[in-house]
Amino acid sequence: MAGDDGGSLFDFDQATYDADEKVKIICLGDSAVGKSKLMERFLMDGYRPQQLSTYALTLYKYSTTIDGKTVLVDFWDTAGQERFQSMHPSYYHKAHACIMVFDVQRKITYKNLTNWYRELREYRPEIPCIVVANKIDADMKVTQRNFNFAKKQGLPLYYVSAADGTNVVKLFKDAIKLAMSYKQNSSDFMDEVLQELENFELEKKEGTSDKEDDLLQEMDQQLA
Amino acid sequence: MSYVAKRCGVKFSPPAIVLIYEDADTGKMRQRIMPVRNFSKFSDCSRAAERLKNSLRHSPYLEGVSQEQLERLHTVLRDHLLGRPLLTPRPDPGDEDLNKLEDEELACRKAQMDELFERNRRREEDPDFVYDLEVEFPESDAREPCSWDEDESDDAF
Ligand SMILES: Nc1nc2c(ncn2[C@@H]2O[C@H](COP(=O)(O)OP(=O)(O)OP(=O)(O)O)[C@@H](O)[C@H]2O)c(=O)[nH]1
Ligand SMILES: [Mg+2]
Known about the structure:
The structure holds 2 protein chains of 2 kinds.
Chain A: H1 12-18, E1 21-29, H2 35-43, E2 50-52, E3 57-66, E4 69-78, H3 88-92, E5 97-103, H4 107-111, H5 113-123, E6 129-134, E7 145-146, H6 148-153, E8 157-159, H7 168-185, H8 189-204, H9 211-223
Parallel strand pairs in A: 1-4, 1-5, 5-6, 6-8
Antiparallel strand pairs in A: 2-3, 3-4
Chain B: E1 3-11, E2 16-23, E3 28-35, H1 45-54, H2 67-81, H3 103-120, E4 144-145
Antiparallel strand pairs in B: 1-2, 2-3
The complex binds guanosine-5'-triphosphate and magnesium ion.
Guanosine-5'-triphosphate (GTP) sits between chains A (29, 31-37, 79-80, 134-135, 137-138, 161-163) and B (106, 110, 113-114, 116-117, 120).
């Protein structure tokens, strides 16, 4: 858990309290396209995320300052494996932006973007989404090619490499900005209702101070 | 006795890997046909290649042929079984859905990918490491279309 990092620079509970903004960004795409490697490259070594293995989910908490405001970001790094399909609704729940990754070496991961995107739009019709062509280090020629999917959907396309680091930091910074502006400009009514309900739930079950418990419970509720 | 591999290729029916080699003792060029058994369109090319490479009968001939090359040849055979045309940009396992694999198999695939990943990796301790490495690529008008977009049968959107 984030709090157990032992002398970490930042106390996250305090940060949650003080933060001006909090956004959730989800990372989607097929198995082995490099979602986790991208997260790790952005946050660099030594960062220890919260791992919810039963849910095939890794939660990275990150804090940054944008225009003088503290922004807390929850990155949800999900698993591509099909047997976690039933988890997807909770991935999408209340997300403010989406990073959708494919592997430039494997066509099927590009073709499957259609499915990921369709599902994303079922749950989050409006949130900003960035399409990411990862592993360009393996074949730089792909950067001269147009991948029509992004264009057709009117989505930005980033050519990146988790291995050599090309455009990784830019990708995540831009994603955070998009998430922020989505949050500020959308008055997502459903979100507010859900938040109300959630507060209500939390009031009822006092004593569960363990963050991971809360998250798990939250997810159970979403699945129910 | 020693054999110097010169070229290799495939035969489709029955599926076999063909090796042209020089017998160093006699200086003669020879051809060896190695049938690929128990191989279907669902087979794991990497494993099949390993099996062949280590087989008692054939391994002495295959010393000069890398397992990667054998894997590629198996992929050609498999693509043929799948009815895919030859000369796809690269005969790689790019059409296999890794989302369906079990944990162990997936870990195995990732381990294979790690080889290239580690080779191309820039680490923090490298002298030329740049955390926020930005590279601009040509604007989309200048880009060529991608062959992956050619079979646009799924007009779901
Ligand atoms: N060459 C190269 N290989 C990469 C790159 N990013 C990831 N890989 C390789 O791809 C493998 C899979 O990456 P992961 O980050 O585990 O993939 P993932 O999308 O998180 O996969 P799941 O969590 O199973 O859905 C890694 O083990 C690396 O070997 C990259 O930028 N370049
Ligand atoms: Mg992962």
